[in-house]
């Protein structure tokens, strides 16, 4: 069958769709889960800082522009939530679940990926920070 990307095979064509994780992926209420935790990760507006500036008439306060939000793009919530689930379901460490995710097509399919990615989804420390932001009740 033809694929959307000529050079890559879709994950749903690589795995057995009867695998328990593949079945669970289709039955999980992903949108509800993401909506329940999304408010904790909304970007917060940051104001610029007032800095003194010297000019011909003495010292004045100048507002600096708002700091840039540029940087590393965020890991999608579905991937982060699925990593937490896989970590607990398979009794993996943070480092272990991230490394195993990069090698396991079924795990990537469970996480909502369309194509196999042979790269880490995030750094293991990102998973720690994600868990801290969710808090104890959020993880449950």
Structural class: mainly alpha
Estimate the global geometry from the Cα principal axes.
globular
Q: Residue-averaged pLDDT, rounded? A: 82
The order of strands across the largest sheet is 1-2
Query: What percentage of residues falls in helices of 4 or more residues?
Result: 40-55%
Distance N terminus to C terminus?
41 Å
Total DSSP E strands: 2
Output the radius of gyration: 21 Å
Share in β-strands:
5-15%
- Biggest pleated-sheet summary: 2 strands, antiparallel
SSE run: HHHEEHHHH
Contiguous low-pLDDT stretches (5 residues minimum) are: none
Helix segment tally: 7
Would you mind describing this structure in some detail?
The two termini are 41 Å apart. The protein has a two-stranded antiparallel sheet with strand order 1-2. The model has no long low-confidence stretch (mean pLDDT 82). Strand 1 (50-55) and strand 2 (58-63) form a beta hairpin. The chain has 140 residues and is mainly α. It has seven helices and two strands, in the order H-H-H-E-E-H-H-H-H. It has a domain at 11-41 and 74-139.
